[in-house]
Amino acid sequence: MGKTTKDQLGNLIERDESRPPPSVILVRPQLGENIGAACRCMLNFGLTDLRLVAPRDGWPNPAAEPMAAGAFDVLNNASVFETTEEAVADLKFVLAATARRRELEIPVIGTDDIGPKLRGLSESGLPTGILFGPEKAGLTNADTVLADAILTYPVNPAFQSLNLAQAVNIFAYIWANSVHQNIPEVFNRAISDAAPKQDLTGLFEHLEEELERAGFFFPESKRALMAQNIRAPLTRAKMTVQEVRTFRGIVKALAEGRGKARVERDKS
Question: Which residues contact 247 (CB under 8 A, 6 or more apart)?
């Protein structure tokens, strides 16, 4: 079991501390605004452990708060370390995010593979983390050598520079997208079953009756084909019972008018 927190809608969310998500480690970050924006990106995708290594302007930094945009749990609980070695001391697997080639014997892993790998480590209860370097120059070799693997994004070779918070956001998305069922719960409500065929047939007959009355089926020799062309897309739509009722209401309103419009039509 883990701690509970509330989301922005006030719903309780339980954090399973036996399956720790990756820690995000910002090494010598320069701008408080980027730290705050990184907090927001992290919480958007379920990451909560932020570690700061020797932030240039000290910590806490008031400039971070507006950009955190409500992700104050991440911001206020950030840990601060003097060295990268201290920041990764308790982690079992560490990534270094960099777009530059390194003369180091460290394996490179891509974005397609890292999500499932980190998810598997988390399921095993192993703490992991990822290093992001300072905005101006990125990670040094001394930082990178502490990593078990280098993570690189498929960025444009002619323009590889990513904003720090953007880089964190991509990683956070990769983590969130590594679950088998990645559709948010709020969207997981079951879709209503398609209407029975007899309801659909009733709609077809209703629609075709009104079209017949309006003289749509002309010439008569093409009536069967025209009716088929009407029925085919409506069948593919897999309308629910309520949608069939609504559609029949539309047909009726077009044919007879409704409310005030019907009265005015009768007068004319």
Answer: 203, 207, 234, 239
Residues of the chain above pLDDT 90, percent: 70
Q: What is the DSSP letter of 193?
A: P
Question: In terms of DSSP bridges, do strands 12-14 and 4-6 run parallel, antiparallel, or are they unpaired?
Answer: antiparallel
Query: Residue 38 corresponds to which tokens in the numbers above?
Result: 């990184």
pLDDT at 8: 45
pTM check: above 0.90: no
Q: Which pLDDT value is given to residue 100?
A: 72
Locate 151 and state its tokens: 């993570």
CA nearest 122: which of 130, 110, 132? 130
Do residues 139 and 133 touch, judged by C-beta distance below 8 A?
yes
Give the pLDDT band of residue 42 (cuts 50, 70, 90).
very high
Q: Compute the residue count for the chain.
A: 268
For 16, what's the count of Cα atoms within 13 Å in the CB-facing half-sphere? Answer: 8
Helical spans, DSSP H, in the chain: 32-44, 64-68, 72-76, 84-87, 111-123, 141-144, 164-176, 197-213, 223-236, 241-256, 260-267
- Phi and psi at residue 266, in whole multiples of 5°? -60, -35
CB 254 within 8 A of CB 209: no
Residue 12 has pLDDT above 60, yes or no: no
261: phi then psi, degrees, rounded to nearest 5 = -65, -35
Write b or e for each residue in 114-131: b if 16 or more Cβ atoms lie within 10 A of its Cβ, otherwise e. bbeebbebbeeeebbbbb
Which of 160-164, 184-188, 197-201, 249-253 is predicted least confidently?
184-188
Q: 55: burial class by Cβ within 10 Å (0-12, 13-18, 19+)?
A: buried
